[in-house]
Amino acid sequence: MEIGSRKRFMELGSILDPGKTSKMDKAVILGDAVRMLTQLRDEAQKLKESKKIMQEKINELKAEKNELRDEKQRLKEEKENLEQHVKALNTQPGFLPHPPTIPAPFSASGQVLGSKLVPFMGYPGVSMWQFMPPASVDTSHDHVLHPPVA
User: Fold this and answer.
1) Which residues make beta-bridge pairs with 113?
2) Is-contact 132 119, C-beta < 8 A?
């Protein structure tokens, strides 16, 4: 009986510290075994906690994935609705009628005196500079003709 237990202690010692010699005290072998089991238990607990954290993260990512899938579907439907709306607007005639013609007093840009066109000054919204001679509109020599007042 003593030989069987001694052989088992030697096997346990060689498993715990494969590089050490097989001549070890039983108390040392048991101490090493307890230390190794405690270390393995702590490592197993850390792995369980890590697994739990990872599982929570996986569940959060799955929920986010489902939310994004739903949002994508909603945006796709909204896009299709907008495309149909734009297509419907393009096929209908314009909502605004053509602009009305300008009343008679404003339709003439100037009066004809002889063979010259004289612009009306003072009609709001009608630019008159286009009817002036180019020499009057040229501003390239203004700084020489009209120097700034100090």
Assistant:
1) 116
2) yes
Cα angle 75, 76, 77 (rounded to 5 degrees) comes to 90
Residue-wise pLDDT tens digits, 48-103: 999 999 999 999 999 999 999 999 999 999 999 999 999 888 876 655 555 555 55
pTM of the model: 0.44
**Which residues contact residue 137 at a Cβ distance below 8 angstroms, ignoring those fewer than 6 apart?**
129
Task: Tell me how crowded residue 29 is: count the other CB atoms within 10 A of its CB.
Answer: 21
Produce one character per residue of 96-133: b if its CB has 16 or more CB atoms within 10 Å, e if not: eeeeeeeeeeeeeeeeeeeeeeebeeeeeeeeeeeeee
Residue 24: exposure state from Cβ atoms within 10 A (0-12, 13-18, ≥19): middle
- CA torsion 51→55→56→61, rounded to 10°? 140
Give per-residue pLDDT as tens, 102-133: 554 544 454 555 555 555 555 566 666 667 77
